[in-house]
Amino acid sequence: MLSNSQRILLSIYIPFTILILLFDRAFPNSEIVQYTRYVLMVSLALSTAVVKKRKPEQKIMSLSFLFLVIADFFLVFSTTIDSLNMDLSMFGILGFMLAYVCLILAYQRNFKLGKEELLAAVPVVGIFSAVYLDLFPHLEGIMAPMALVFGSMLSYMTWTAICTVFRGYFSQKTSYLIAISGILMYICDIGVAYSLFHPYYSSVYVTWLKNIVWAAYIPGWTLLALVINEDSK
Length: 233
Description:
α1 runs antiparallel to α8, α5 packs antiparallel against α6 and α7 packs antiparallel against α8. The chain contains eight helices and no strands. By secondary structure, it is mainly α. The chain has one domain. The radius of gyration is 17 Å and the shape is globular. The longest helix has 26 residues. It is 76% helix and 0% strand.
């Protein structure tokens, strides 16, 4: 069962996600869509900052939202500022890396490496390897090792999020929220990687790809906000 505050979060951010998807299809690459999404994520971060946190892991998870807002500014919001004629995506990538470090630290409780954990690693590592090999010819300079480090961190975060289901530290409901949140972030960042580095998807605005990114990104972080609003582990 979801608490009242968790239901409120879902009732706000899921409809807004649908609204953003509809607006993005009607007005592709519109600045108003970018502004709306950024304000939405800032408000989500603020909601996690003010809520009372009963567990130290919730405090660490909440810190990840600070890095999320910073990363989003450099990756998305800065592109709407005409006078800012420079690529700041590197700072955005670093911001998300710090956010994922926070999540890894929070999800590592009762760490173990059993059969379930090894099986969970197979699709995560397999998909990342295929994506990296596909994009590698298009990565220039420092972006090749940077993408490898970022992708490895993303994959580890996703894997350890899934593994919370097997480790028994968090409640079953919380573990599933964490696992689904991690998977959605993983899907989102794969979509972002193609939109940034693939020669076709980076040269034109591909609405269906952006829809996948937004449909995974906002709900993924919203589910994490539900975990921070959870009264029990």
